[in-house]
Amino acid sequence: MSKTDVTEVETTTALPPAKRSFGARLGAHFKKWWWVHLIIFIAVLLVILLPVIYVGYPRIAQNQVTDSTLNITSMVIADPTPDSFHLMQTQVIGSHSSYHPKIYSFLASVSLLGSAHAFTSVQVPEVQSKDGAEVNVDQIVDLSNADAFGDFAQAVMLNEDVELNIYGRPGLREGSLPKTTVTYNKTVSMKGLNKLTGFDVTEFHIMTEPKNGRNMNGTVYIPNPSVMTITMGNVTLDLSIGGTPMGYTYLDNLVLKPGNNTIPMFATVNQSAIIGLVTSSSNPYKDLNGLVPFVISGNSSVYNGKQLPYFTQALASNNLTVNLNVTRALAELGLKL
Ligand SMILES: *[C@@H]1O[C@H](CO)[C@@H](O)[C@H](O)[C@H]1NC(C)=O
Ligand SMILES: *[C@@H]1O[C@H](CO)[C@@H](O)[C@H](O)[C@H]1NC(C)=O
Ligand SMILES: *[C@@H]1O[C@H](CO)[C@@H](O)[C@H](O)[C@H]1NC(C)=O
Ligand SMILES: *[C@@H]1O[C@H](CO)[C@@H](O)[C@H](O)[C@H]1NC(C)=O
Ligand SMILES: *[C@@H]1O[C@H](CO)[C@@H](O)[C@H](O)[C@H]1NC(C)=O
Ligand SMILES: *[C@@H]1O[C@H](CO)[C@@H](O)[C@H](O)[C@H]1NC(C)=O
Ligand SMILES: *[C@@H]1O[C@H](CO)[C@@H](O)[C@H](O)[C@H]1NC(C)=O
Ligand SMILES: *[C@@H]1O[C@H](CO)[C@@H](O)[C@H](O)[C@H]1NC(C)=O
Ligand SMILES: *[C@@H]1O[C@H](CO)[C@@H](O)[C@H](O)[C@H]1NC(C)=O
């Protein structure tokens, strides 16, 4: 039997001093070279972060501002003068973003979409941008361009919808990230007066005792589908029948509110001319059973003694025709035709 030699393999050899554990080696390496690693770490961090902060973040911020919407839910024009008015406006921000950056107060120029000139600048207050956030503007605005505002007022008068452009460069801050500047360029659609469609003289009477030359009174109905409350002052409208001037209608201290407006009116009409017309055998309206078509066209809007050219322009851009029962008005006075 041969003896199997078991060769003892030395398994427990002590490591030479240079062959330490990986961890230990790493530790020693860092002890010596930590500053190189720190510099590399910081450099990598900066290479990643800087573009995020200075390129990506402004871009994300800009996209958020671009994607947000703006609704004007209320707009009050008060104390108008030829070159200014008091504006009170509520805007509602719409946003689907989960970020709610702070948008700093900024100067926004407001123009009719497509117009070359802004009609005013508005200081928009600071706001935390989130869905449903309200922005309230309350200030005296100077009409930097009263003609451009006249075009806006006319567009409001004539159109069902009016598009406004609001432009500015506000600062924006998200959390603890640095402040960045974004471009705010929004088109806001709002309802207009749509040619005062639905306008009606619901009641009119010949005054038995004329006052200040005013010899008719009554009530007008003016629907206002917009969100605007417009102080127009003393409004004068021209009255004509078949192209012949017949006098003036007055809406004193007119303030158009959103919804249905029922407003007292007065008129100075040439009664002898009207009676002459309806009693003449050549009355072109004799088949209308007493009705006479009056054309109402804008003459002027005056507030505190000053004519407001922009409202005058808006009023002049729109003619209305109302059929008034002259026979009935005369019958009220006991005059039978
Ligand atoms: C803004 O108005 C539009 C249409 O009128 C509506 O669909 C939207 O929900 C409104 N957004 C806000 C934030 O009120
Ligand atoms: C704002 O955006 C509109 C298009 O939506 C563009 O026509 C207009 O030039 C922009 N305004 C500015 C000042 O960049
Ligand atoms: C119109 O004036 C008459 C007096 O002439 C008055 O009785 C009437 O109440 C007035 N109507 C309206 C609607 O102002
Ligand atoms: C305004 O008047 C019209 C009818 O002329 C009516 O249908 C509507 O409900 C009224 N609106 C308000 C807010 O009263
Ligand atoms: C009223 O009409 C008559 C006849 O059309 C005319 O002769 C008269 O001058 C007019 N009066 C006024 C104040 O315009
Ligand atoms: C406005 O009314 C005045 C009288 O009050 C008249 O002289 C003038 O011609 C009218 N202007 C227009 C544009 O109808
Ligand atoms: C409208 O005219 C009347 C009478 O002239 C005046 O007392 C009133 O102050 C005027 N209203 C406005 C808003 O200018
Ligand atoms: C409105 O009617 C007046 C007189 O009837 C006329 O001079 C004017 O051109 C008309 N305006 C419009 C916009 O149709
Ligand atoms: C106008 O009024 C007269 C008298 O009140 C009446 O007979 C006539 O039917 C009225 N016309 C219309 C179109 O309502």
Overall SS class: alpha+beta
Tell how many strands the DSSP assignment holds: 19
* Overall tally of structural domains: 2
**Approximately how much helix is present in the residues?**
10-25%
CATH architecture of the largest domain: Sandwich
β content, as a range? Answer: over 45%
* Overall geometry: rod-shaped
Helix count, DSSP H or I runs of 4 or more residues? 5
CATH class (first level) name of the largest domain: Mainly Beta
Detail the poorly predicted runs: none
Mean pLDDT: 90
Commentary on this structure:
The chain is an alpha+beta fold. It folds into two domains: 125 residues, Immunoglobulin-like, CATH 2.60.40; 138 residues, Immunoglobulin-like (Sandwich), CATH 2.60.40. Helix content is 25%, strand content 45%. It is built from five helices and 19 strands. Strands 1, 2, 7, 12, 13, 14, 15, 16, 17, 18 and 19 form an eleven-stranded mixed beta sheet that branches. Strands 6-3-9-10 form a four-stranded antiparallel beta sheet, with helices on one face. Helix 2 runs parallel beside helix 4. The longest helix has 46 residues. The mean pLDDT is 90. One of its GO terms (cellular component) is fungal-type vacuole membrane. InterPro entries: DUF3712 (IPR022185), Tag1 (IPR046368). Keywords: Membrane, Transmembrane, Transmembrane helix.
